[in-house]
Design a protein that fits this description.
8-stranded antiparallel beta sheet
Length: about 290
Amino acid sequence: MRATKINFIMLNKLNLKSILVLCIAVLSLSACEENDIPIFDAENGRAIAGFNGAISNPKIVFNPAADTENTITIGVSTLSSSDRMVQLDLIEEETTLDESFYTISSLSPVIPAGQFTVDIMITTLASEILPGSRDEIVLELVSVEGAEILEDSESLLNIGLDVQCPSVDLSAIPGSYTVTASTFANFFGETDFTREIIAGPGENQFTILEGTYITEDAEELIFTVDPSTGAVTAYDETKIESQVSFGPNTYKYLPGGRVLTCVGIIELNIDFGGSIMGNAHVFNLIKD
């Protein structure tokens, strides 16, 4: 009777121990589920790899005044007791950003044992020559050792640029500028092309004296700048028609561009329909 009692007590202790272990396991699983990538594919029991938390068209920062580090993360859905080799590929035929504007830390990083992710660094390089606003880097995740890249995994990134200075100083905008690019100047072979920019007439507004057209009697052009980003948000539409003194008088006004006070560069993109010059007028200036 006593032996039975002892065995019963020992069994109860064993059950309590088992329950405790189970609770710890459940709590550990719940904690792991808070990771960006789930730790386990319950349906298929396999490790899945992809760009971690990525969107199909992310952007990295390009600061023309300083080299800037940008992080891209690759991850897997399960832990491994050994390192996992990762292989990335730069799709050169689709990458439009010139290699002089950036470096990539590695195309063969390693996910360390016991880790879910590894980071690579894309460093954009300071330059007074600006990349195109639509330039991009295209990266493909080719393989991750001991893991699968599924059809719906995030395995291809078209990485665009967010061109910005650390801060925007609107008081630095007024001054004399040399025009470094102009659709009209290129069309007519104009070589000596400068403009004066003054503040006003309104808040966060600036006026290009003689406008963006190349004739001497071209009217001034007023544009508005977002002081927090340097983005050009509006033009004075009553002034834009005078920039084109020929062609049908049907126009659409789509302001765009950026003011980079850290390097004294202004880029304006003026889209207008119905002109023999086409739909886009590129107008770039650098402060003298």
